[in-house]
Amino acid sequence: MASVIADHPPQELAAELSGLLRVDWRTVWPGIPDGEAERAEWCAAFGWEPLWLQSGLWVRTPQGGRLHLASAPGPGRPVTRASYTVWKATAAEESEGEAVLAVALDRYAAHLARMTAALGAPDWTGAWDSPGFPEPPAPGRWGDAEERLESRAPYRLAQWRYAHPLAPVIVLDLDHRAGGYLAGGTISLAFHGPAAPNPDSGPGWLL
Description:
Order of helices and strands: EHHEEEEHEHEEE
Radius of gyration: 17 Å
Helix content: 10-25%
Number of helices: 4
Shape: globular
């Protein structure tokens, strides 16, 4: 039987998005403080509650969501991405895959509509096999074109880019796996950081 692991309605996504848009990301990209007390103070400046360290830091947002700040292990490593799982379901059997995908596509359309209302039309949106599929915000994020087409991942994607060099690339994507123990679907909202953040190069950004 398919299992739903996360199912946040569009209004919850809108609340999380609104909170993330108010963050001054130039103070996030340089990295997460190493000490526990310093980390808690750093998180408090954004209204976040630190949860646990795992390939970066997991935090609780003011809206109650869990946000993953991805970074390589070690102090002072840049944060490369902040991601929020909007919807996730697993399929226990391969025969359930199509049913899970149908629900995932329905949820994705609803969340994309809510994000478009907040941000305007994305500068790119489409499916895994659409022409002009954008380059990933970070090297290796989606694999090369051949790998991406073979895996059909991301299955759907919408992307918003902004002119400021420290502004995040905002992505809503649907990842669908047809078979194996990872079968199922995940819809994620991610704010991708610059490859080499430099917080002293100018003011932060606010939309």
